[in-house]
Amino acid sequence: MKKNKKKSNIDFRFMSFFFKIRDVFHPPIKKIINAEIKQGEIVLDYGCGSGSYSIAATEKIGPMGKLIAADIHPLALKKVREKAKKIGYNNIETIQTDCDTKLDDESIDKIICFDVLHGISNKNNIIKEFYRVLKPNSTLSLDDHHYNEDQIIDFITSDGLFKLAYNNDKQYNFIKI
Ligand SMILES: C[S@@+](CC[C@H](N)C(=O)[O-])C[C@H]1O[C@@H](n2cnc3c(N)ncnc32)[C@H](O)[C@@H]1O
Asked: pTM for this one?
């Protein structure tokens, strides 16, 4: 399998700073609400970055849920762990991964994957991995401003593993078929 490249540490820190500003104008909780994340769920935030959506999703799932923050970059996971510790969330796990999460089959209620797809060279690998780890009829919520709507829907649905269920403000929820 072709490996994906991670950003340099400087690039990652710059991106994290930019996301701090983004989150002021676009509060992360909005996408979490659109993803229909519920209390007690097990949620995978794939390509978590500095954890804006991991933290917002953990707020939503509450103490009975579990958040798994996954990223190729070790600094991302460090950042998420620091944020979780500061807030006092002890139900966040982190995994460093490049499209092979090692999570159990059908163990996840929801996957969120925001602004990540464009960085993944073999998109089929990650789509198959999402399919493998999601419980039956569960949802992948995804956006990527680098692609238009047709491209996103095509990437996710062309293998017949997912179908589009919801589309709002360039955020797409796909159900595992
Ligand atoms: C543009 S950032 C988005 C971060 C976060 N989802 C957000 O919107 O705040 C993309 C993230 O995806 C991660 N990433 C890129 N390729 C990846 C891969 N193959 N597997 C896991 N994470 C990856 C990057 O390290 C980066 O943290």
From this structure: 0.98
